[in-house]
Amino acid sequence: MLLPYYGFITALALDPIEKKPLYHFRPGTSILSAGFALCNLRCPFCQNWEISQKMDDRGRFFSPEELIGEAEAGGCAQIAYTYSEPLIHSEFLCNCMALAHERGIANVLVSNGCINEDAAGDVLALTDAANIDLKCFSEDTYSRVLGGNLDAVCKFIGKGLKFSVHLELTTLIVPGLNDGLEEIDRCIEFIAGLEADAVPIPWHLSAYHPAYKWNAPPTNAARLVEIARRAQKRLNYVYTGNIRGGLEDTACPGCGETLVRRRGYLVEKCALVLSADGTGYTCAHCGERAPFVL
Ligand code: SF4
């Protein structure tokens, strides 16, 4: 078998971890983001279509040693595999992830979650945190419009929990495609069902902007907030993204005090303090354990 794009990296950047977006994993830290080439889906509104839908020859090949060395040189304790789809390069991904762990660096996966269930285990066993796209809750939209598979994504998310990966989910709200309240409610139901058996799963609702083949007007900010508020009735950690003045802060579920205040990528830890045993965070106001990973 040939792996013509083994180690081909299209972008390398030092990002705030909140940009992934990950709000509950090592908040306020920097992460090295490594961008891959191509994707197994064909979302017509892809915001990264220049690297996901055609081969971009502006990148270059890295060995796992070189890539993890970049994270070390940047003083990053975590590396994200992101931008287009890392799972289609699982051989390189697993080699990098294993090396990262040897060097004490955490692995963050940003992915569409469309992968064969057996292969998923190899990657998830080495993943510390992940942001997975839940693009909609319609099998028809997944297969007909995006070229993906809702069932595979749901299984990948469930498997991530079994592997104790810190999970956050992202849904790009595309008007007319996935913003119907019935479909939003199915997403909420799915996430609430996962949370019943496990730790809370932050859900990021992002505003779409016209890109690639999709020219519909951008997501209305008020509509995005309305959807997020609807979700907050069932879920504790729902955030909006890509709009100004949305829902960005985290409140303590125990007393309502603001744990973390965010303005864009500026992060202020308010009532979020280290727990007495040093293994996590608690609320300084009421002492309740806060679901953030140190
Ligand atoms: S899964 Fe992500 S990278 Fe791939 S086509 Fe869809 S939006 Fe683009």
**Quaternary organisation of the protein chains:** single chain
Largest β-sheet summary: 8 strands, mixed
- The number of helices is 8
Basic shape: globular
Distance between the termini: 40 Å
- Beta content comes to 15-25%
Q: Which series of helices and strands comes N to C?
A: EEEHEHEHEHEHHEHEHEEEEEEE
Bound chemical compounds? iron/sulfur cluster
**Helix content class:** 25-40%
Going by CATH, the architecture of the largest domain would be: Alpha-Beta Barrel
What does this structure look like?
The protein has 294 residues and is an alpha/beta fold. The protein has two domains: 8-247, TIM Barrel, CATH 3.20.20; 249-294, no CATH class. The protein is built from eight helices and 16 strands. The chain has helices at residues 49-52, 64-73, 90-102, 117-124, 139-146, 150-162, 181-197, 221-232; strands at residues 8-9, 11-16, 30-35, 60-61, 78-82, 106-111, 129-133, 166-173, 203-207, 238-241, 250-251, 258-263, 266-269, 272-274, 281-283, 289-290. The strands form four sheets. Strands 2-3-5-6-7-8-9-10 form an eight-stranded mixed sheet. Helix 4 runs parallel beside helix 6 (150-162). It starts with 7 loop residues before the first strand and ends with a strand. Bound molecules: iron/sulfur cluster. Iron/sulfur cluster binds at residues 39, 41-43, 46, 48, 52, 84-85, 112.
